[in-house]
Amino acid sequence: MASNNGGESGEKMEGWKKGLKCVGNWMTPKDKNEWLKDMRGMLSLMATVIATMTFQSGINPPGGVLSPDEDNGVKCQNQSCPGQSVLALVYPDDYKIFLYCNTICFVSSSAVCLLLVSGFPLRNRFFTWLLSIGMCVILSTLSLTYLFGAQMVAPGWNNLLTMYGLIIVVWLILLVLIAIFLFLRLFVWILTKCIE
To answer: Which residue ranges does the record assign to the PGG domain (predicted)?
Structure first.
C-alpha cells in the first residue's frame, strides 16, 4: 500500500507539471524568436520617443516660461526669474506633481533604453518581466503627466475633475489587470523551474 500512495503522489505531481506547462505555454507567444526581435525594436522606439517627449515637457513646460524684463536685467532675488515656468508660480502644488510624474517617466524610459542597449538577453524571462514592468511605469507616469499638464492649462479645469478621476480609475484597473497577468506569468515560470 505504501508504494501505491507514492504512485498517487507522483501522478499528482505530474498533473501539476502538465497544468503549469499548459498555463505557461498559453501565456507565451508562439514564435518566440520573431516576437523577441519585434519587441526589442518596439520597446526601443517607444522608450526613445517617450524620453524625448518628457525631456521636452520638462525643459519647455506647459503654459510657457516667464520672459525677461524689458530692460534685459535679470533680477531674481525674491521674485520670479525669467525662464521659470509660469504654471509653477500659478499652481505650485499641481506643477510639482506634474514635474514628479514627468521626471519619473523620463528616468524610467531612459533606464529602459539603457537596458535594451546594454545587451541583456531578452530570452531571459526575468529581464523581459522587468522590461514589461518598466513600460507599465513609463506609460502610467506619461498618462499622469498628460492629465496634470492638461489640468493646469485647461480653462475651468475644476469642472473636469470628475472626468480626470474616472480616467485615473479606469487606468488603474487596467494597470492592476496587467500587473496580475505579469506576476502570474513570472510565478508560473518560477514554479515550473522549481518543479523541474
So the answer is: 34-150
